[in-house]
Structure formats: C-alpha cells, structure tokens
Amino acid sequence: MKRITALTVIAIAVTVLLTTCEFEIGMSNRTPAAGDFTVSYLGQSWTGQPRRVIITPKSGKSEGEITIYYEGTQGTVYAKSTAAPANVGFYTVTFDVAAASGWNAAEGLNGGTLMVKMMIPIARDFEIAGRTHTYDGAPKSVTVTAAQGRSQGVIMVYYEGAQGTVYTKSADAPIERGAYRVTFDVAAWQTWGAASGLNGGTMRIQDPDDSVTVTSITANYQGGLVYEDTTLDDLKTGLTVTATYINGSSAPVSDYELSEPAPLTAGIRTINVTYSGQAATFTVHVSEAGTYAVFTPAAWVDTLQAISGGGSNIEYTINVTSDITIPSSSNDTDPTFGDATGIEVTITGSGTLTVDSAGAGAADAARVLVINANQTVIVGETGSPTGPTLQFINNSTATNNVVVNVRNGGTFELRSGKITGGYSIGNVVVGGVSVSGSFIMSGGEISGNRGGGVGGVYVNNGSFTMNGGVISGNTGSSGGVRVTGGTSFTMNGGVISGNTATSSSGAGGVWNNGTFRMTGGIIYGEDGDTYNPKGAPNTSDNNPDPSDALRVTGTAEYGSFDAGGNWQGTRLDSTDDTIRVENGVLVAP
C-alpha cells in the first residue's frame, strides 16, 4: 500500500490553489469601449420633435443597459441631459454602459456629435400666381406665397428672358411682351435655412389678341396627398392649368374654376376644370382614414412624412396607383419611415416606385426602401397576381444601389409584386434585398438585379423564409441567394432558377454558409446543374462551379417538421439537374 505523507498533501493543496487562481485571473471582466458600439442618426433635420440617436452593441460586445446623454457644443446651449434635444444645433453625445455578464460598467463613452440641421425650402413649398399677363405698358410680376407650415423668410423674385426674349436677369418686373424665366430666393427664417435660385416657372406678357380666344385647356395635377376633407381650393396647390390660344401659343393660367364632386370622398375622383369657355378634367386618388393613395411623387413624400411623424404601434396602408419616380433613401442610416417604431406598413396596388440613378438629387448607396428596427413592411397582397414594383433605372454610374435594405432587426414580407433593377459592386453587396433582420417571401418576384456579392437576396444577419414566389434572372458572385454564417434560410416553396454566378466559388442558385433547411420548392442552377453536398451536411464543395444550384459550406438539410414543431431532417444530396423537395422527400425532376 502506497503512503501519502503530509508533505505530499501540502503539495497537492498548493497545486489546486494555484490552478484555481489562474482560472479566476483568466476569467476577469472586460471593460466596454466606444468602438464596441454603433451610433446611428448623428445627422438629422429639424422637425420640432426630439432628435434621438440610437446606440447598439456590435456582435460579441457588452449587452449592458445603455444611457445616452446630450450636451450643447459649438455654441449651442444645452445642459447635459438624457432628454434628446429638439432645436437646431450641435450636441455632444456620450453614453454609459451598465455592467453585464463578463463586462464591467463604463461611463462617459464618446458617441460623436449630433447635428440637428435647418430645413431648406424647395420650390413646391410656395404658391406662384400671375404667370400670364396682357401687355398694357405697365410692369408685370408674379406673386410668390409660402404654403402653410413652410418657411416665411423674405422672398426675392428675379426675371430673365426666355424662349427668345432678351432680358438680363433682374429683380425689376419686365414690361415688354415675351416669356420670362422666374426664379426666387428665400432668406433664412427661424429653423429654416436660406435657399436661392428656386424655379418659379415662366411668366408671359402677351398681346391683347393672344389672350382673347382660348381654343383648349389642359389640367395636370402633381400635388400631394388628397384626403376626404380636402377642398377644391386645396387642389389648386398642385394643379397646373394650361390654356392654348388661337394663335397657337400656350401658357399657364390661374383664374380657372373647379367643380364636382364636393365634398371629396374616398376613391378615384374626376374634377372638372373650366376657363374662358373651355373645359378639361383631371383625376385624384382620395385617401380614406389610415390609407394613403399615392399617385404622384409629392404624394409619396407626404406619405412618408405622415408615417414618420405619426407615432408608434400604428398600421398603415399605402396604395400605389400610378408609376411614379420617387427620391431615394440616401443611405442606410436614413430609414424610409424615419424613427417610427412598432409600425406595420402595407404597400399595395399595381403601380411602380422608381428611383432614377441618373436623376436629379441621385446619390450613391441609394435604396428604394430602408426598413429599420421595430418596423414591418409588407409589399403586395397574398394570392394577388399583381402587386407594386420597386425598382432602380439608369444604373450606369451606380456602385451601391440596393432595392430593399432590412436593417437592425426590421421585418420585410413580399407577398406579390416585383423587386428589380438593383445594382451594386463589391464582394459583399447585393442588388435585390439585403437582410439584417427577417425576410419572408410568400409570392412575387425578385429578378433583374446585379450585385458584386449576390444578385437576388443576401442574408447577412437574420433569417430568410421562402414560402413561394420566384427568384430568377439575377447576377452576382452568387446569383440567387447567399446565406452567411450564423444566419438561416428555410425554403418551404417557390422557385429559384435562371440566376447567374460570376465567380467560380459562387453558385447560380443558393450559396449557403449558414443553416439551410428545405421542405419544398425547386432550385435550379445557372444551366440546370446542381451541387451535390456529397453526403452529410457541413461539407464543402470539392469542385465549386458557378452553374451549381446549391453550394454548401454550412449546414444543409431537407425534410419536414413533425406535429410538435420539431425538425425531422436528413442530409441534402442530389446529383440530378434539379434539387426538388415534395412533402419533405427529395425526388428527381
């Protein structure tokens, strides 16, 4: 029998003590730093409401409670406070992070500078009257009036010869017959900045005979949202009526009359216009409560402003009834529906929302929709054969145009309609839909998009569930869908086909580096080929080919869910021209 002496026992105890100390030292807490967090919304426009920034921890960093402080800087007087400022100015942002598991607390971390900017007037903020005059030897001028709620800054109007009329730009009203280009400047006022060179249209001074006999008139409405309580006079803000005279000339007129129907009721309504014995009509889409009928660019802008400032936990419906060109969300920190939280916005109709990459005010990193945290946006209606189209055009100079960006845990659902025309370059960018949240596709089409990383759908941080619809005709390093590590793609139905991979390491259909589960649907490669995972999941493609239907570097399974909601799956293995799953069973095409 072996003896254990007292000296041996002491040695063992010392060893255990040292090991325990080393373990405790190795497990010491870390202290958060400012670079561990993402700070959003440091640049905002004045609205009269508090302007808050959002601070979120990066992956793997402290989840401790964050307290944000604002303090005036660069001449702005604002005592340090957790209350977000509302006034125009500059504010130093700092924040504290409470202790959390494995992390110490931290105070006074630098969050940058919040800038609340003045709003800048635009031409449509003003009503312009008096563009047509009869020559009588006296100076003729237009009247520019600010709409309610817009800048009341001092207005200076200028006239310059146009269409062959010689007249040097001047603030003096012209006298002689001819056409005159009208521009105007607006001085700064309260929370509004100054603006110069705003377009006021064309003023005409005509011979008496030119304005005697009107042969026809036209009416073009490009105003904002129309509600059931809108009056006929309200419609004049966005209406242009043009008269054509017996001598062939034409000019806008202002002293026309509107009639029927009054009051306006929800639906498409025809308005009658009369001027100098001639008649014309135009239609407006009247919105009922909770629904926005969008048929002009101005109506789209009004809708976004109404939803952004409408509060939280509200459901909205936007009915896109026409094909319109809209301004883009200029970057990923400019959500389409602002900071509103808990909202659900459903976009219906058969119209098209187009962002023109070559149009006025176009910017790189443009988006048709940016969906923020705690926002749900639904496009189309379940079972509908048609729906809204969201698209980019004129992408020759674009480098980062994504049609829909789901960010910070937002939710996007495509039920019908089409997403097309996205164009981005770079290894990780996408043309169609970028997902850092939740994306559910039950119908519709994602096609004609091009991305450096993937053409159709890029699941970067979140989940993608495909219950129906078609992903086709997209081009990128991977053509159809790319799923990164730590994310998931569940395919219960639909078709992925005819997509093009430009990289030998990509896949025409799906490149999965996360978790891919398939209970139904069809995946075709670029040329009808497929990728064979060669056995169990978690294997890499030994011979990647851009025509592959599926490339797996993560987990791929097919099967079904049992009655208890538990996954009953097995390996995904196909050497056919198609990967097809019917009722949880992999079969040949």
Q: Can you give a write-up of this model?
A:
Helices cover about 5% and strands about 40% of the residues. The chain is globular, with a radius of gyration of 31 Å. The relative contact order is 0.05. The strands form ten sheets. Strands 20-21-23-26-29-33-36-40-44-47-48 form an eleven-stranded mixed sheet, covered by helices on one side. A hairpin with a 2-residue loop joins β18 (about 265-275) and β19. It has three domains: about 35-115; about 125-285, no CATH class; about 345-585. The longest helix is centred in the N-terminal third of the chain and has 21 residues, at about 5-25. The chain starts with 5 loop residues before the first helix and ends with a strand. The protein is mainly beta.
In short:
The protein is mainly β and 589 residues long. The protein has three helices and 50 strands.
| Rg estimate, integer Å | 31 Å
Which class do the helix and strand fractions yield?
mainly beta
% residues in beta strands: 35-45%
Distance between the termini: 74 Å
Kindly give the count of domains. 3
Largest sheet: 11 strands, mixed
How is the largest sheet built, in terms of strand order? 20-21-23-26-29-33-36-40-44-47-48
What is the helix tally? 3
List the helices and strands and how they pair.
Layout: H1 6-26, E1 37-40, E2 43-45, E3 54-57, E4 66-73, E5 89-97, E6 106-117, E7 126-129, E8 132-134, E9 143-146, E10 155-162, E11 178-186, E12 195-206, E13 214-221, E14 226-227, H2 232-235, E15 239-245, E16 250-253, E17 257-259, E18 267-275, E19 278-287, E20 291-294, H3 297-308, E21 315-320, E22 323-325, E23 343-348, E24 352-356, E25 367-371, E26 375-379, E27 389-393, E28 400-406, E29 411-414, E30 418-420, E31 423-424, E32 433-435, E33 438-441, E34 445-447, E35 457-459, E36 463-466, E37 470-472, E38 475-476, E39 481-483, E40 488-491, E41 495-497, E42 500-501, E43 510-512, E44 515-518, E45 521-524, E46 550-552, E47 555-561, E48 567-571, E49 578-582, E50 585-587
Parallel strand pairs: 2-6, 8-12, 14-19, 20-21, 21-23, 22-24, 23-26, 24-27, 25-28, 26-29, 27-30, 28-32, 29-33, 30-34, 32-35, 33-36, 34-37, 35-39, 36-40, 37-41, 38-42, 39-43, 40-44, 41-45, 43-46, 44-47
Antiparallel strand pairs: 1-3, 4-5, 5-6, 7-9, 10-11, 11-12, 13-15, 15-16, 17-18, 18-19, 28-31, 45-49, 47-48, 49-50
